[in-house]
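Incident log, support desk, overnight shift.

02:14 A customer reports that sequence design results differ from what the structure should imply. Their input is reproduced verbatim below. On-call engineer (initials T.W.) acknowledged and began investigating.
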């Protein structure tokens, strides 16, 4: 069967197999491999257990998702060994490549980024390959965010671009920071509302008499910010959106904060929100481009997950290109020597009769390629790059 079909379908299966970390099989020997080493990457042995794990994941994914398609389009019965031999060979090759990719990920994460491998109780529950897959997926997640942070740090935004962003809507960036004292109560209970209001008025009178806002917040506020003297550690714009982070504040709260004129002013009337009554103090005002430039630039630095994944794929490829690899040779279906000969000649492998191998249904390679592209069109959207991904 022409290899192009397998490449297209494997794109999806690679991601699927990498994400499958659990198994119903009992542990072999407390997380230790039970099979022999079949190859290595930079001196780290890769074991038969891992190869069998990935091969079984690929096979079951193909069987569950593409069994009927292979029968209908190519006359391949995955339950018939002779019929599926070419497909099984490509699965073996993919399993070996996945082993290399996963170990490359682990080495990049631990050696280049100093990411530590976690330790889970599952080491004594899962078999070696499943547990190893779980660990590598864990360090991969940390690696993903580390690379994303590097990419963001490397981005530069010009003052011109940042200023243009500010001038699109200055109100989105001009912002204020506040502290508050929150008196929580059941807002549907009129008696509780009256009691909270009276308490808030009493606190406002104490503030007017010169008592310290932070001290009163620590002693009286029903909010998590009480420990910090009621300080809300963020800046909010007139639209109630937090400028230096994510989220928003109550509209009533923000309206009252923007009504205060000077830093240090506090509301002389309790401000009602769905949380209760607030007494709000204005801590800081940011107005104009220069005051918000840093936050504007940070907001303009974006790196998509796809861009991070592409960078990781490049890192994995470069790692494998320079690595010392002891190649696996003990395959049941895949023939490395035949594959190498095919790659070098650029021609299709031939069978014993000297004729180009064709599918059992008699389709030509050109027809097969066209059909493969049609039959697997839905899979391409999940992995156009053809690179291994870990989820």
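02:41 Re-run completed on a clean worker. Output:
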């Amino acid at each position: 069967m022409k290899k192009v079909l397998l490449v297209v379908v494997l794109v999806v299966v690679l991601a699927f197999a990498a994400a499958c970390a659990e198994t119903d099989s009992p542990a072999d020997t407390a997380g230790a491999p039970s099979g022999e080493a079949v190859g290595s990457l930079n001196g780290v042995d890769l074991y038969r257990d891992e190869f069998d794990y990935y091969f079984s994941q690929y096979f079951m994914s193909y069987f569950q998702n593409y069994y009927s398609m292979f029968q209908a389009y190519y006359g391949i019965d995955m339950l018939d060994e002779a019929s599926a031999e070419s497909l099984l060979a490509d699965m073996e090759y993919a399993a070996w490549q996945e082993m290399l990719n996963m170990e490359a990920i682990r080495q990049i994460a631990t050696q280049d980024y100093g990411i530590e491998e976690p330790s889970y109780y599952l080491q004594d529950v899962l078999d070696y390959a499943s547990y190893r897959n779980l660990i590598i997926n864990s360090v991969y997640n940390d690696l993903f965010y580390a690379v994303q942070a590097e990419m963001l740090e490397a981005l530069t935004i010009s003052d011109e671009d940042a200023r243009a962003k500010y001038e699109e809507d200055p109100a989105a960036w001009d912002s204020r920071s506040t502290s508050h004292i929150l008196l929580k109560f059941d807002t549907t209970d009129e008696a509780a509302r009256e009691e909270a209001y009276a308490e808030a008025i009493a606190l406002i009178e104490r503030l007017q008499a010169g008592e310290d806002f932070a001290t009163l917040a620590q002693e009286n506020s029903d909010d998590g910010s009480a420990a910090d003297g009621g300080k809300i550690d963020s800046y909010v714009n007139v639209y109630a959106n937090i400028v230096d982070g994510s989220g928003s504040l109550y509209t009533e709260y923000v309206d009252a904060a923007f009504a205060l004129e000077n830093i240090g002013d506090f509301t002389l009337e309790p401000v009602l929100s769905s949380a209760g009554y607030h007494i709000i103090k204005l801590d800081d005002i940011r107005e104009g481009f220069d005051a918000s430039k840093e936050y504007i630039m940070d907001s303009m630095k974006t790196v998509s997950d796809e861009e991070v994944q592409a960078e990781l794929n490049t890192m994995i490829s470069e790692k494998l290109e320079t690595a010392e690899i002891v190649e696996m040779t003990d395959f049941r279906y895949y023939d490395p020597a035949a594959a190498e000969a095919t790659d070098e000649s650029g021609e299709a492998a031939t069978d014993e009769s000297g004729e180009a191998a064709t599918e059992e249904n008699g389709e030509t390679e050109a027809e097969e390629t066209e059909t493969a592209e049609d039959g697997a069109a839905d899979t391409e959207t999940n992995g156009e790059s053809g690179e291994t991904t870990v989820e």
